[in-house]
Amino acid sequence: MGAVSRVAAALVLALLVVTVLAPAVAAAEPTFGNAIATPTFLDGIKLDQRVSLPSGVHRVEAYVREGSDAHVFLADVPNPGTGDHVLTYTYETPAGSIYPNTQVLLGFRITLDDGQVVDGPPAKVQYEDDRFAWATLKGDLVRVHWYEGDQAFGRRALAIGEKAVKDASELLGVTETEPIDYFIYADTKSFYDVLGPALRENVGGIALPEIRTLFANIPPSAENDPWVGIVIPHELTHLVFGTATKNPYHDPPHWLNEGLAVYLSEGYSASARGNVERTARAGDIMPLRALVGQFPTTADRFGLAYDESVSAIDYLIRTHGQEALVTLIRSYAGGVSDDAAFSAALGVDVAGFEAGWLADLGISEPVPFGPQPAPPGPLPPDWAAAPVPTANPGASGLPAPTFRTTPPGASDISGPVTLTVIAVLAVLLAIGLFVVARGLSRGEPLLASFTPRDAETPPDAPTPPDAPTPPDAPTPPDAPTPPDAPTPPDAPTPPDPERPPDPERPPDPERPPDPHRPADPQTPPDPERPPDPHTPRDADTPRDDEIV
Ligand SMILES: [Zn+2]
Questions:
Q1: Nearest to residue 229, comparing CAs of 156, 176, 166?
Q2: How far is Cα 232 from Cα 275, in angstroms, rounded to an integer?
Q3: How remote is the CA of residue 544 from the centroid of ligand 1, in Å?
Q4: Domains (ranges, CATH) in the chain?
Q5: CA of 541 to the centre of ligand 1 (A)
Q6: CA of 184 to the centre of ligand 1 (A)
Q7: Distance 396 CA to ligand 1 centre (A)
Q8: Alpha-carbon gap, residue 176 to 68, rounded angstroms
Q9: Dihedral angle at the C-alpha atoms of 127, 133, 40, 185, nearest 10 degrees?
Q10: Separation of 421 CA from ligand 1 center, angstroms?
Q11: 216 touches 235 (CB < 8 A)
Q12: Which of residues 9 and 529 earns the better pLDDT score?
């Protein structure tokens, strides 16, 4: 009863403490004024907010959330201590870090000593390229923005854009309802300021489905260039493709996306066909699995990547029909793998589809670039077969060793030999111990135990008298493992089809160095993370003489 009374008393006391302290905890939270964000293009977004801080503030941070990105960027801010203050923070926005037309949320986060985290109300700002007086024309879905050129140019761009969205949406069976912004830059430098330094050269247009925005570089001199009628549908097809395939798990192969954009904007042109067929005859075709991610950077390979992509789309439609292409693309919305998508839509997996495409081109599968398994080296002549019977692997039930093909880590000759040696040593040890024990039991001195006792034992034998093992049985452990048995380091690792192991491969432009994210310990890199506004996915170079 005494113990129960003490527990009850403790509970009452605890309730009293909680009741007394609860208002104090609530009163200790920080209070915030309105957050004010002031963006300066290519410089930064300045955030100011009045705050009243209680005692017990452990940390003050700024938080930033860009567009629909689920990641939150956090930056430490000096803790000004208890009292009323105006907190200030500047989120730097150098070229390429945030694309114009992106909505950004910024606020301050207070972490108290007890671990409680309080986010102040954020400011919401639209990050814009305000260097120009943009003219705007609105259609049903597309809004065209441009700053050089007349109204006729804007109307033409809008008409092309509206038709492209309509065509691609109908083809892929998706309904676009949210507006799409299309910004047309007249000069290359201003356009590159938007893209940032991490993007490759000669990019003429870029589609960013995550902010439903496209940027293109179309100088006034090119207003009547046929390329304008290509680049706009091309980029808008990417955006509709993004809507049709959106899922958090797996992006479709890049060649599928680009191939469709080229097919819908310009078809399988004679020049593309000629390039592919010429390259095929030369034995220099890149496999489709080399075009899953970003395309090669050299001009000829970059152009060839587009030509091969549209060639594969052309083959797909000729062989399986347009409906199969649409089924294939739409299935990606379910987050399926490439093989699952291809098998369900076409009846063949990716390798089977590629084999059909290559056969259609009249060539066999290209040999991948990069490190190849080294040929087996020569064995010393006396190592060819000698170790095998010694190990007697058949008796052990292990597979018979084959020096040239047994991969590292698999069962090989060293296993049986090691067992044999251990067994022999164990027998010798047991015999030795027995002899010692017998000698000791007879009261003989220990050092005398190895004294020859029997006439059968040679007087000078330094080894135990009754060694039962043939002299050649204890094979040296390393004898059956010839020096070339360790396979060259790259042999067991075949080239990753998703990433051709090209030592010359440049850093992946899909992930340009981000001035913000690496510093954020709260948000580790996530391989499945949705497309990052910092990382353009669909930049396209107008090819060859079409480069503007
Ligand atoms: Zn493209």
A1: 156
A2: 24
A3: 15
A4: 25-127 (2.60.40.10), 135-369+532-546 (1.10.390.10)
A5: 8
A6: 16
A7: 60
A8: 17
A9: 70
A10: 65
A11: yes
A12: 9
Cα(159) to ligand 1 centroid in Å equals 20
277 Cα–ligand 1 center, Å: 22
pLDDT at 433: 66
Q: What is the pTM of this model?
A: 0.61
The two three-digit tokens of residue 349, written as one number: 């997996």
Distance (angstroms) between ligand 1 centre and the Cα of 42 equals 26
Q: How does pLDDT run across 272-302, given as a tens digit for each residue?
A: 999 999 999 999 999 999 999 989 988 899 9
Could you tell me which residues come within 8 angstroms of residue 148 by beta carbon, excluding any fewer than 6 positions away?
186, 219, 220
Q: In what order do the strands lie in the sheet with 180-185?
A: 135-138, 142-146, 180-185, 213-217, 205-208
Ligand 1: centre distance to CA 258 (Å): 5
Q: In whole angstroms, what is the distance from residue 181 CA to residue 145 CA?
A: 7
DSSP 348-403: S-HHHHHHHHHHHHT--PPPPPS--PPPPPPPPGGGSSTHHHHH-HHHHTSPPP-T
Question: How far, rounded to the nearest angstrom, does the alpha carbon of residue 212 sit from its chain's CA centroid?
Answer: 23
- Ligand 1 centroid – CA 539 distance (Å): 6
Beta strand pairing call for 83-92 and 44-53: antiparallel
- CA nearest 106: which of 195, 34, 42? 34
**What's CA 319's distance to the chain center, in Å?**
32
- Please tell me the distance from the alpha carbon of residue 217 to that of residue 194, in angstroms, as a whole number: 11
Strand partners, 65: 105
pLDDT exceeds cutoff 70 at 434: no
Cα of 422 vs centre of ligand 1, distance in Å, is 65
Cα 3 to middle of ligand 1, angstroms: 76
Distance 168 CA to ligand 1 centre (A): 14
Give me ligand 1 centre to Cα 80, in Å.
49
pLDDT digit string, tens, across residues 358-394: 999 999 888 777 788 888 888 888 876 555 444 444 3
* Token couple for 431: 């015999």
Q: Helix or strand or coil: residue 473? A: coil
Task: For residue range 245-254, list pLDDT tens digits in order.
Answer: 999 899 999 9
- Per this entry, what is the length of the chain? 548
Ligand 1 centroid, distance to 211 Cα (angstroms): 16
The amino acid at 512:
P
pLDDT in tens, 2-37: 444 565 555 544 544 444 444 444 448 999 999 999
How close is the Cα of 154 to the center of ligand 1, in Å? 22
